[in-house]
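Thread: "does anyone have the structure for this chain?"

Original post by V.I.:
We have the sequence but no experimental structure in hand. Need at least a predicted one for the grant figures.
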Amino acid sequence: TLRHPALGWSIGQYVCHMSDNLRIYSERFSGIAAGYRRSLAPYDQDALAEAMRYDIVPFESSLWALRRSANDWCDTADALDPTAAVLHPERGLQTALDLILSSAHDAHHHVWDVRRSIEAHR
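Reply from O.Q.:
Generated one for you, tokens below.
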């Protein structure tokens, strides 16, 4: 439940979000690898957090989900042609490599959020 005062989510909620984000990108990567080239479906991270009740998910459960999502993300990212292009709902035309890099960056940034939250409570 630790939370950095400048952030809206607790550490547990960030872990849930990272898991869901990686899983969603794994699904997208799987479709792209299979030849899907139309617009990707958008999602609202805050609505998903509310629907999934990130605030009450046990931390151990969120870590379990994150490990699996990260493994799936790696597997599906490896299967992509990096030049395959699709329309991202917010960023426009993106290559598979763009999507890989942006979702990896998101995960890295959220690890930084988790670390800041821990440091704020030391």
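V.I.: this helps a lot. The two ends are 14 Å apart (CA to CA).
O.Q.: and The longest strand covers residues 85-88.
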